[in-house]
## 1
Amino acid sequence: MNPRWLAVVAGTRPEIIKLGHVARALGPVGRVVHTGQHESPELATDVLASMGITSARTLTGIVGRSRHTQIGRMVEQLGDLFTSDEPAAVIVQGDTNSAVSAAQAANTAGVPVLHVEAGLRSFDRAMPEEINRCVISVLTDVHCAPTTTAVRHLLNEGVSAAKIELTGNTIVETTLAMVPAAAEAAEIAAQAGAEPHRYVLATIHRTENADHPARLEAILDQLTKLGLPVLLPLHPRTRQSIIRFGLTPALDRLRAMPPVGYRTFLGLASLAGLIVSDSGGLQEECTVLKRPLIVVRNSTERPESIAAGFAWLVQPGEAISELGRQLLADSALRPRLSAIPCPFGDGTASDRIAAIARGFL
């Protein structure tokens, strides 16, 4: 195996964000491979630049394809790369099509796999991400688990304890490094026409919500009933669904906007009175930012946020507006959340993971 490099594979904005500090900690031996699963500047190239990644090999013909086409093309191209210029190991993160493709390509090329954020489970096989997580686990040589809950899931599935490392979650250090100071965050909110702590920040993009007209309509309707302005950065997929389902009139009652850069997004999140989202990453970021989050999903693979008191899992419907108004009216909520420790680690996960990865060189 080539002792000179470690492949850091990322294809979506969350992966870039969570692996950026790992890549930097690895230095020259860590080379980023961008699969192209996210292609727009707001979700890919701008995020790479914000994480200090100025050179990344990018695959072609991936974005906008069906899931099976994406995975097939990524496995083919990554497999060719890992065979022709074999890395010492391949680092993947999370549960995306990019991550499962990289793990399969590495395995077929005989290259070890290190899985960042290993062991998360929703136990909901209707989620494509859950299938990806389970497949990646079978192919992984070192499981970097973010929490003790994740470690327990892996052990229950028969993974050897010798292959599991409790590292914490890299989102902690990334959020702390990227979130703007209060004054800058207030300026970001002002530019969006919002007053600190007097607005709601919402994001919707998951298949179970964005691809189902009744669910998407219910979510948009409930957001309008929260009693505060709702800032809604729209994922390209969600915008397309809103147009396809004829739901554009609902946007007239919300402050829809294009996707924003990660630092800008963290600034908005840090001063939001409430966050409503189906994002997995926000379930972690809210515990660093100390903000309340309503998780609009069928299930979650991050129960730590809920157990700690930062997040509430609800289905689309009246529960969103009812719970949201209760949380916004709770004057003691903000100081209460500020006193709760983050359940995802101490902000040194990236250094731990980089040190583990160097062991393959």
## 2
Amino acid sequence: DGLNALNDISALSNLDYANYVYLESCNNLTNLNGLDSLKTIGNTLTIRFNNLLTDISSLEYVDIKNMNNLEIIENPGLTICNYLSICQYFSDDGNSNIYNNDIGCNGILEIQYDCQGLLSIFEIIPTSSITGNSSDSYWHNPDNWKNNMVPVDSSYVIIPPGNITIVEQDSIASCQILNVLDDATLTIESGATLNVVDIE
């Protein structure tokens, strides 16, 4: 807890069980390599306030389904949390607090949709100023989406800051949830339709 000099937890490589795992304010830690041999966490997993943490893939196969609490909070570089262990924990309605991480791991709903392959994040930021006529920003171009798939009716769509997303003329686009973040732009061209069930 609060180990600013800690940048490596490989010394834990022989650990196979822990009741509580707290990784808090480890501001030089970038990954959880060293927890690869961990098989089970019994009660609580807390990962918070780790400024450089970008990779928690070492938790992929850890059994956390019987834990009482999962916290992933204030890890600004963390974008991927849809690992098997976490997806299973959510499917069993485990108690969680997840927020203020990067897009893709910034809330329970984002991770749940990502676990189903239904989180669509638009990720083409134009390099020059455009006013809504660049094919590089089209909704129906699969290359513009993080998972290389155009969103479907059941997708959770996020348009990150700085992005300009265009539903092109005379086309139809759909999603379950739409979240257009601050400083992002969504343009629906003439004759186009965007069907959305819920707007965040």
